[in-house]
Design a protein that fits this description.
alpha/beta, Growth Hormone, Chain: A, Rossmann fold, 2 domains, seven-stranded mixed beta sheet, four-stranded antiparallel beta sheet, 11 strands
């Protein structure tokens, strides 16, 4: 409960501004601090998705820890009400430093330590405590300015707080991320936070501060702004160093699209690796084996019209275009930056056989789920070359509803090929995909293929991409309407570089030998995938 004794209110005459002006300035700072606080919160949620994966779980951890910590911060602020002005100025300096540097530290822990989960929880806790301490101190300060009753002060403070949160929530995706990026956006937000909090205390409430407190608040906020400014100047150098730590010394291309970060490493076509949001998506060492195993079994039958969902790198399209009787290949890729690189980058376009130059190929920039709902075409072959289902943002593309749309898009006798993850290391995920395909109205046949890449298990952390480091096998599903196709190579098709018909049939038997009891399908309402599951 706010202390409403006379000494608190009587201080209004000591302020250097009129009460109405002082009240306006306090509410303006509440607005700014609320906007900055929500930016920190959204920054942590975005970073949890990018650096850790499993969006729902990580976002829940961030939000729940932060709300809990806000309660702790509110209790802590009770001890500072006697020194509300100095306490608020120092807390804003600390919040600006912690929140503004959070993106840098989390990226650093991911790049050099390989894991940012513990840092994420620590920042959620620290930022929550500091945000929670703001409102009680601001309540005390606004009553120092005006003789307003406690109920009216609460209403005004929360109105400014909620409007500021709205502005911060909209500024994050529409201004800070696209214009400044994650790192610079967080640093600039921290600088604004420190400037607003420090200016309020040092101007409006400077007479409430002793000389030592005044210098302490000024030094703390100026130092924080200077540190954040220096970090902003060094952001580009930090990003280059972090990329080298994650991807090695041969980063050639790094593109921040509106969808993801796309990175190409390797000095030439034979050493090329493609990363999407830090996850290895394709490596020139063995991608041909992966895409041959994904595409060729589905081409055994009618194949005039081929639909590739995902696969903006053009590698699956390369395999489909090797068949001269294929009349059209449609690639539906959410990120146009990836298809643009696949078309223009010399190494990547060379690796995909210059697939985008083939007049039979049409690229569509769209979400595959939404595109399937709107498209009325029929296809002989549908290839699902999508990020792994353990990444929650892509879980809908492995749902029963998604496969129901695919079933409607298949022509009579058509086939669907799906990369479903390694059945040995992630059996729950693999067999949940199988159940979801079946629930969508198709009959799947599983098969597994060894990657046969020496040293691959030690090549680095597996981040959920197709054939990421650490995978010793790949698991696929070949499905059709009415009956399950048998995985094999077309007798009238091109000869794959490293895949044989006998190996495919043995892979089908090997997958059946590790079959789990029937799993419930994953749906839009009840997704069942977890990263690492």
């Amino acid at each position: 409960m706010i202390d409403q004794q006379a000494p608190l209110r009587a201080g209004a005459a000591r302020l250097p501004v009129r009460p109405r002006t002082g009240r306006f300035l306090v509410l303006a700072v509440v607005f700014v601090c609320a906007a900055c606080g929500l930016v920190y919160e959204l920054e942590l949620v975005a970073l949890s998705s990018y650096l850790v994966g499993d969006t729902v779980t990580q976002a829940s951890v961030v939000l729940s820890v932060m709300v809990f910590a806000m309660g702790i911060g509110s209790l802590f602020a009770k001890r500072l009400r006697c020194h509300a002005a100095a306490g608020f100025g120092l807390i804003e300096a600390a919040l600006a430093l912690v929140g503004g540097s959070s993106a840098l530290v989390l990226h650093a822990s991911f790049a050099w330590l390989g894991d940012s989960r513990y840092s994420l929880v620590a920042f959620s806790l620290a930022i929550g405590v500091l945000i929670g301490a703001e409102i009680p101190l601001l309540m005390t300060l606004i009553q120092r300015v005006d003789r307003q009753d406690a109920g009216g002060a609460v209403a005004d403070l929360f109105a400014a707080d909620y409007v500021g949160a709205l502005v911060g929530g909209l500024a994050f995706p529409f201004l800070l991320l696209p214009v400044l990026g994650q790192l610079t956006g967080a640093l600039c937000t921290g600088a604004v936070n420190a400037a607003a909090g420090g200016a309020l205390v040092l101007w409006v409430f400077r007479r409430d501060l002793g000389r030592r407190s005044r210098w302490l608040v000024a030094l703390a906020n100026v130092s924080v702004i200077a540190l954040l400014g220096a970090a902003t100047v060094l952001v580009d150098d930090f990003e280059r160093a972090a990329r080298q730590a994650v991807y090695g010394d041969h980063v050639r291309v790094a593109v921040h699209s509106g969808v993801q970060e796309v990175v190409l490493t390797g000095a030439g076509r034979d050493a090329l690796s493609l990363y999407l949001d830090g996850r290895l998506r394709a490596s020139a060492r063995d991608e041909h084996r992966f895409h041959e195993a994904l595409v060729h079994p589905a081409m055994d039958g009618p194949r005039a019209r081929v639909l590739i969902l995902g696969g903006g790198d053009g590698l699956a399209a390369r395999e489909a275009l090797r068949y001269p009787d294929v009349r059209s290949v449609t690639v539906v890729e959410l990120d146009p930056a990836l298809t643009r690189l696949a078309r223009t980058d010399p190494a990547l376009s060379g690796l995909n056989g210059h697939a985008y130059r083939d007049p039979r190929l049409t690229a569509v920039a769209a979400d595959p789920f939404a595109w399937l709902r709107a498209d009325r075409g029929r296809y002989d072959v549908v290839v699902s070359d999508l990020p792994a289902p353990g990444i929650t943002a892509g879980a809908k593309l492995y749902s029963a509803e998604f496969y129901g749309l695919v079933a409607e898009a298949l022509a009579p006798g058509g086939r669907l090929a799906v990369h479903a993850g390694p059945p040995g290391r992630r059996p729950e995920t693999f067999w949940t995909v199988e159940a979801s395909v079946r629930a969508g109205g198709l009959v799947p046949r599983p098969y597994r293929i060894a990657c046969r890449c020496a040293g691959r298990a030690a090549a680095g952390r597996e981040r959920g991409g197709a054939g990421g480091p650490g995978e010793e096998e790949w698991g696929f599903l070949l499905a059709g309407a009415g009956r399950a196709p048998s995985p094999g190579l077309p007798a009238d098709g091109p000869v794959p570089r490293s895949l044989g018909d006998r190996e495919l049939r043995e892979g089908a038997r090997a997958a059946e030998s590790v079959r789990l009891p029937p799993r419930p399908p994953s749906t839009l309402i009840r997704p069942r995938y977890r990263e690492g599951g």
